[in-house]
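Lab meeting, item 3. Inverse folding demo.
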């Protein structure tokens, strides 16, 4: 047996120690490499003492990590302690699985990246200063005293839209702060912009300011947050336009409301406006603490349509505090089942056009003048130029925009190209348009859906639909020398323009909540002019046109601020009901509302919910359908989110939620639903029901009359729906209205008959 000297033993121990240490290092490195950011949701706060809430976070994390409470505390990224109890931390998959089994832990959710849903509109909705006696502005003092929180990409505080001129002191109940950072400090806040926070731990390490401009502060580098905030609560700014288009006075829906900004969306390389659930939850948590009255979130995705998102769950905590939450419905239309924020406590907003457009005349060589849409105002007229497809002036094989290559033969010509629905998001389309511009074309006519955004403000491109594009193409093929003259873009307001639902606006029905109508309402979301991050020409006054349900959402947020002043005791559900039951189902001119996508068709509730918001009627709805915490618990029980021990023995029906709509996704024979309305109009009033029956469906209301007086403020009624359908079909739509001769309280009815369970004939 070989003997070891003390020196040899010491050396071998040292080597063994180093080997073990190295293996531990490799193991730790592997664990760190495999770790991901998770949100640990622990439900409602169990303690009023916030230090005890945070201590419970440290305890559970220390147990899972096998470390001390002190080390666990250092590992926490965010503590969520105001709206609900929870935290964000890095965990391996195995640790996350262990965490999910810990007592007191409701759910463990991985970090997800959400995306943003990216003047005239207020006059279009009826909020006009020239008719101030007929709208809520005078009595609501334009929202003064209400605090609107906006979770987005931040704010450009120098914009005149955030001037505090004429405003009184900051509400004494405000507990927020203006947090310093890059090119931002507390002096940038005022009596208008009363709070500004920023949260970026969910994207730390991903921000690269050398590749994508960004500020580690509440300052906006993208423009989206500035745009949405000014749409909701922007102060009056006169003589505003976008390069001469849409000239007028820019203002938010509630110009005297106060603004609190929470920057949780960031300009990442190649992903402008990225928002992690980790950061958004922290923003919501802070907003609840700070004391906002309204929360506006123009963001969503990518949560599964089959599960409720942790953000929507957190927003329930805000609603429980009396905060009305407004969210964009999503930009994944026109496909059905794409609507987001489908829970009953959130107001989900679809996007419509309005009665304003930017026509650009196109005169063909045969003296035929047709109209396209453009936002280019760089020069007046091109004069007559040669007109043709890319293949007429280059080696491009087709007339498709994505096939265009750089070719000097296109210089000085006007080029017509087509974008198909299938290639709208094809990167080759942008490449083709860029090649045309670099080739020196005098202009381009693009045939595709008119509401799709084409960012060519600094060169002459005109958008037309397929019918007009085909007409122009036919002219180029029938003329020996096709010519065209492009004229400057103008602003057209009013007739003959009609309201349409934007093709990008996400559609219902909801997969998760088929018995809940979503979206709730629609608002202008196409070519909305609002404040933006400054362009080089004017540091203090920069405005831009933008489109998306992101732009529709803050319209409703601004209206909610007005309603909060007029009806301070109303719950978030009451406010949603007022907006929904008074929404317009026809264009202001009296014409039907259509969809934009081809073929155009009359809209149904899955396109725009109850209709286009009408702030004037919403201020005095007559009746409201109210809801409270117990209703929301019933909903969570129905979808299986809550443990059975927290739910009633008998599973609640989603159909009986006290919603301002009736949606039956699987009618078998007949079904009866119950609703309860509260009178908020004249003390003595009698409402009579009227029914517009869905095709093949009998609807019966009992009682058909509701009489209210000084002692009877709340009444219930039942609606029985019976189907006569004998074959499988789709949804049919109708309407239930209650009227006292002054108010018209309307609820859409959406019914689909189930003939054979779980059967589809769509192949």
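The presenter then showed the designed sequence:
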């Amino acid at each position: 047996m070989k003997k070891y000297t003390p020196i040899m033993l010491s050396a071998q121990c040292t080597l063994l120690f180093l080997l073990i240490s190295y293996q531990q290092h490799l193991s730790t490195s592997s664990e760190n490499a495999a770790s991901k950011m998770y949100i640990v949701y622990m439900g409602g706060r169990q303690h009023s003492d916030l230090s005890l809430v945070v201590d419970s976070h440290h305890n559970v994390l220390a147990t899972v990590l096998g470390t001390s409470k002190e080390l666990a505390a250092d590992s926490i990224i965010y503590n969520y302690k105001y709206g609900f109890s929870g935290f964000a931390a890095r965990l391996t998959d195995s640790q996350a699985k262990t965490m999910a089994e810990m007592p007191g832990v409701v759910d463990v959710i991985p970090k997800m990246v959400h995306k943003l849903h990216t003047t005239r509109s207020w006059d279009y909705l009826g909020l006009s200063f020239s008719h101030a006696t007929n709208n809520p502005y005078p009595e609501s003092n334009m929202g003064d005293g209400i605090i609107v929180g906006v979770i987005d990409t931040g704010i450009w505080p120098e914009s005149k839209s955030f001037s505090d001129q004429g405003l009184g002191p900051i509400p004494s109940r405000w507990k927020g702060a203006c947090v310093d950072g890059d090119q931002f400090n507390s002096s940038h806040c005022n009596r208008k912009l009363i709070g500004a926070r920023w949260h970026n731990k969910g994207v730390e390490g991903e921000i690269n300011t050398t590749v994508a401009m960004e500020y580690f502060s509440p300052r906006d580098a993208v423009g989206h947050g500035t745009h949405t905030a000014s749409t909701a609560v922007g102060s009056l700014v006169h003589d505003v336009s976008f390069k001469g288009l849409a000239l007028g006075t820019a203002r938010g829906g509630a110009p005297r409301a106060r603004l609190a900004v929470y920057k949780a969306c960031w300009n990442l390389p190649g992903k402008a406006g990225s928002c992690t659930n980790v950061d958004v939850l922290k923003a919501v948590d802070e907003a609840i603490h700070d004391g906002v009255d309204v929360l506006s979130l123009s963001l969503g995705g990518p949560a599964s349509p089959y599960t409720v998102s942790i953000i929507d769950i957190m927003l329930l905590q805000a609603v429980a505090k009396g905060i009305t939450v407004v969210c964009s419905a999503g930009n994944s239309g026109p496909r059905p089942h794409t609507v987001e924020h489908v829970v009953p406590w959130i107001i989900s907003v679809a996007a419509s056009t309005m009665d304003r457009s930017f026509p650009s005349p196109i005169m063909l060589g045969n003296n035929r003048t047709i109209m396209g849409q453009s936002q280019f105002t760089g020069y007046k007229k091109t004069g007559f130029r040669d007109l043709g497809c890319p293949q007429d002036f280059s080696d491009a094989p087709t007339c498709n925009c994505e096939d265009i290559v750089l070719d000097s033969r296109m210089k000085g010509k006007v080029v017509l190209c087509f974008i198909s629905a299938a290639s709208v998001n094809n990167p080759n389309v942008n490449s083709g348009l860029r090649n045309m511009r670099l080739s020196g074309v005098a202009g381009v006519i693009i045939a595709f859906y008119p509401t799709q955004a084409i960012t060519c403000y600094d060169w002459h491109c005109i958008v037309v639909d397929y019918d007009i594009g085909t007409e122009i193409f036919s002219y180029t093929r029938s003329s020996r020398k096709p010519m065209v003259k492009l004229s400057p873009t103008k602003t057209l307001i009013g007739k003959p323009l009609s309201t349409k639902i934007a093709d990008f606006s996400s559609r219902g029905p909801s997969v998760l909540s088929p018995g809940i109508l979503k979206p709730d309402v629609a608002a202008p979301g196409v070519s909305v002019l609002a404040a933006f991050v400054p362009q080089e020409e004017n540091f203090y006054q920069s405005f831009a046109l933008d489109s998306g349900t992101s732009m529709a959402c803050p319209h409703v947020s601004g209206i909610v601020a007005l309603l909060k002043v007029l009806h301070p005791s109303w719950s978030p559900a009451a406010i949603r009901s007022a907006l929904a039951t008074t929404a317009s189902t026809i264009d202001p001119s009296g014409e039907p509302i259509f969809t934009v996508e081809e073929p155009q068709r009359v809209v149904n509730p899955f396109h725009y919910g109850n209709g286009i918001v009408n702030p004037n009627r919403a201020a005095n709805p007559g009746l409201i359908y109210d809801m409270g915490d117990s209703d929301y618990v019933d909903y969570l029980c129905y979808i299986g989110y809550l443990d059975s021990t927290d739910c009633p023995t008998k599973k609640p029906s989603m159909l009986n939620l006290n919603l301002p709509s009736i949606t039956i996704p699987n009618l078998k024979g007949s079904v009866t639903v119950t609703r309860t309305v509260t009178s908020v109009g004249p003390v003595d009033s009698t409402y009579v029901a009227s029914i517009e029956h869905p095709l093949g469906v009998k609807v019966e209301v009992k009682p058909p009359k509701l009489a209210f007086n000084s002692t009877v403020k709340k009444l219930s009624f039942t609606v029985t729906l019976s189907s006569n359908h004998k074959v499988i079909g789709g949804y049919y739509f109708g309407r239930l209205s209650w009227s006292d001769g002054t108010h018209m309280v309307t609820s859409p009815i959406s019914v689909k008959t189930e003939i054979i369970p779980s059967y589809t004939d769509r192949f």
